[in-house]
Amino acid sequence: MRKIKILYLVSTLERKGPTNQLLYIIKNLDTAVFEAMILTLSKEPENSMKSDFETLGIPVDTIGTGRISGIFKNRKILKKHLEAYQPSIIQSMGLRADAYNASLDDRYFRLTTSRNFPTVDYVKKFGKLKGGLMAKKQLEYFRKLNVVSCSKSIYNQLNNVGIESEVIQNGVDLDFYSPISRDDFSGRSKKFITVGSLISRKNNRTIVETFNLLGAGFHLLVVGDGPEMEELKKLSKNENIVFSGNSAEVNLLLRQSDCFISASSAEGLPNAVLEALSCDLPVILSDIEPHREIVDNSIFESLIFDVFDPKALQEKILTFVEKKDHFLGKGRELVSSRFSSFQMSKKYQELYLKKWQQDTLKKKE
Asked: Which residues form the signal peptide (predicted)?
């Protein structure tokens, strides 16, 4: 059987959650069956993961036009790449890439992954007017493509607006995010960590306010950058709250911590939570569906707190410290059984193969 060619179409390979998920899909592809290529729309940023893909032997090409000039040039350039590579499958990622993918005809199996619910995420990030228009366009593209939802909660939200999808939950690289033995933190400061963009949807304000209440003996490391950085620094009244900015060594920072916190008001299926659990960190999570989806029927359900309630988070932190032995050593087991990157990639490959076989049969009819 000839190899099934897959073209992955993305805006850039910027270091962020969706790019990590793409790396996991490609890293675990059965190379006897599939052949992969990546095409980016724009030049790579400084924090690009391009070299990670090239290390795997994956060719990465770029159209390289600007966002404005690209409107007029990209379709023609994309067509030339498709004629040269002749993929059977095109998988896009993100609003811009989805726009081009949605404009192609049905000779290709075209799919995308929804990693958020656009109506919520875009409005929170870009405001009601701009975000609302972006969400409207994204849903329009979804209706023209085969859609994979990265979580059951995203599936339900899309289904409520009439968009069908298949659920393939995000995965985590269990080898890269591996645990270390931790000392007993009795008698020393407790080290907590939160990881993610400093934007309103991540609700870092609630975490900072909580650690203002806790005071000495409770250290918080905030990993990430974003428009709320300065506001959060001003809000911080405790020298035990440290803002590190972005880091390429999140796995090491997780291993050095005692507990992970996410106070997000909305998510797809958060990579940072999966990474923390893979490092065997206990997690304290806000009460949203994607968080519950991860810790469903596990001991960490008891550490879920009400969103936007610093005192509720404070109570869960104190509960964790008091009963820490109940929570240690349970995270890795949870993600290993349900959220490994290998399992996630395997499910994508099963989908690719099923659709390719269906298309092959149609062409023979």
From this structure: none
